[in-house]
Write a structure and sequence with these properties.
Radius of gyration: 21 Å
Structural class: alpha/beta
Strand content: 5-15%
Number of domains: 1
Largest sheet: 6 strands, parallel
Shape: globular
Helix content: 25-40%
CATH class: Alpha Beta
CATH architecture: Alpha-Beta Barrel
Number of strands: 13
Number of helices: 13
Order of helices and strands: EEEHEHHHEHEHEHEEHEHEHEEHHH
Distance between the termini: 29 Å
Strand order of the largest sheet: 4-5-6-7-8-10
Length: about 425
């Protein structure tokens, strides 16, 4: 019986263990988690979501504080169009986060960065170009383009000296999205080095409509993509993601032609993950009924999370002067609109309840938006319940090797 370790992910002459840990923001996929994946011979991700905040935590910089001080005069103003990121400082934060991570890398694996198109930051094109090129400056092994079609993202990097050197990939949830991306970038003569196919059981934002996401199936989409690439004579590694909970789940995809698998949920309860332990315990004790797909994200995408997330219904004042990652090109955000609506309806209230949307920036920064994969309710079966009622936190190495070597849908529990 085959196992994940019987396969290899190939980038040219380089061979890796075909396990990729997804890029969970904000700093849930920490540098430590990505570095552990690379040390073990696979691929780990850091995320560039709110990278100035991440830099402030890791390196004691003051990017957020300085930005908030600069725009303090605008806090009470509902018009956020003046609140801009300093692109030089954004580049500095990105290079610092990426560069320090790459300096620490050991082992035969690789470290990629997950880059979300939906972080519009009041200047979508300019900030995206800065984030992408600064990650390449920092020496990142590869970039995974997520949360959007990214039809112009390759073009933003084409003049960078590492554009054809670094591994560049795209996350898609349908064959049509892949076809649009390939068609748009054909003139650059630069195909993606890998394609992550993310299904409807993934954590966080989903690339499906809220009305019919449950009708889709990861395996069906993966097979469609594999057949299309074969018909077009394109040799691009395909990496399924979303709902791959055991090594046996992973092996089934590898036997059907996938080059690797991307996993994340089981790594949310590891020591190397950035989540506070009290949040990890919420994940570990969750039941299937505790998980929902909702529309509270200002990005417009459906999002899977725990129903008990503090972010749901929280009516905190928008803090775009400090963050502002979801402001569109005109300085608008749907949470600001929802918040102002409730303030207008409840003029005497000291604190309002906003159910329609959530301030994703502030809540993700505070680890209060508990996004999760569909199978989060199975996490309790991967570890030991302790005498005090809490669950044992795992090591990333234990989870990685369980994927790598397990068979027969077995999950190896950690030693007490």
């Amino acid at each position: 019986m085959k196992r994940v370790d019987d396969f290899r992910l190939r980038f040219g002459k380089q061979e890796l263990v075909p396990i990729m840990i997804g890029g969970m923001g904000v700093d849930i996929s920490t540098a430590e988690l990505a570095l552990e994946a690379a040390r073990l011979g696979g691929v780990g991700h850091i995320s560039d979501a709110m990278v100035p905040t991440v830099s402030d935590r890791r390196f004691k910089t003051s990017f957020v504080k300085d930005k908030q001080k600069q725009y303090k005069y605008n806090v009470a103003n509902t018009d956020k169009s003046e609140v801009q990121f300093d692109l030089g400082l954004l580049a500095e934060a990105t290079r610092l986060h990426v560069g320090r991570t790459m300096e620490a890398k050991k082992g035969s694996g690789m470290v990629f960065i997950n880059c979300m198109e939906k972080l519009t930051m009041n200047a979508p094109r300019e900030t995206l170009r800065t984030r992408l090129c600064s990650a390449l400056d920092g020496g990142i092994d590869g970039i995974t383009l997520s949360a959007g079609l990214h039809l112009g993202s390759f073009g933003l990097m084409e003049d960078h000296p590492r554009f054809r050197d670094a591994k560049l990939g795209i996350i898609i949830s349908s064959l049509r999205a892949l076809q649009l991306f390939l068609r748009k970038n054909a003139k650059l003569n630069r195909f993606p080095d890998f394609i992550v196919v993310e299904g409807p059981l993934a954590g966080g934002h989903l690339g499906f409509d809220i009305k019919d996401w449950a009708k889709y199936d990861l395996r069906t989409i993966v097979l469609e993509v594999l057949q299309y690439l074969k018909n077009e004579h394109l040799d691009i590694p395909v990496i399924p993601a979303g709902g791959i909970f055991t090594g046996s789940d992973a092996t089934a995809f590898l036997e059907e032609g996938a080059a690797a698998i991307q996993v994340a949920t089981r790594f949310t309860v590891t020591n190397e993950c950035g989540l506070p332990e009290k949040v990890m315990q919420e994940y570990l004790k969750a039941s299937e009924a505790d998980i929902e797909v909702n529309t509270v994200s200002p990005t417009g995408y459906p999002m899977r999370m725990l129903k008990s997330s503090p972010a749901i219904g929280s009516g905190i004042r928008p803090n775009c002067e400090a963050y502002g990652y979801l402001l569109d090109g005109n300085g608008h955000c749907s949470y600001i609109e929802a918040y102002n609506k409730q303030v207008e309806l409840n003029p005497e209230a000291k604190k309002v309840i906003v159910m329609e949307k959530t301030c994703l920036c502030t809540h993700m920064r505070n680890f209060d938006c508990w996004t999760c994969g569909h199978y989060t309710y199975r996490l309790k079966d991967t570890t030991n319940k302790l005498a005090d009622g809490k669950y044992q936190i795992l090591s990333a190495e234990h989870v990685f090797k369980d994927y790598q070597f397990s068979t027969d849908q077995q999950i190896s529990l950690p030693a007490l």
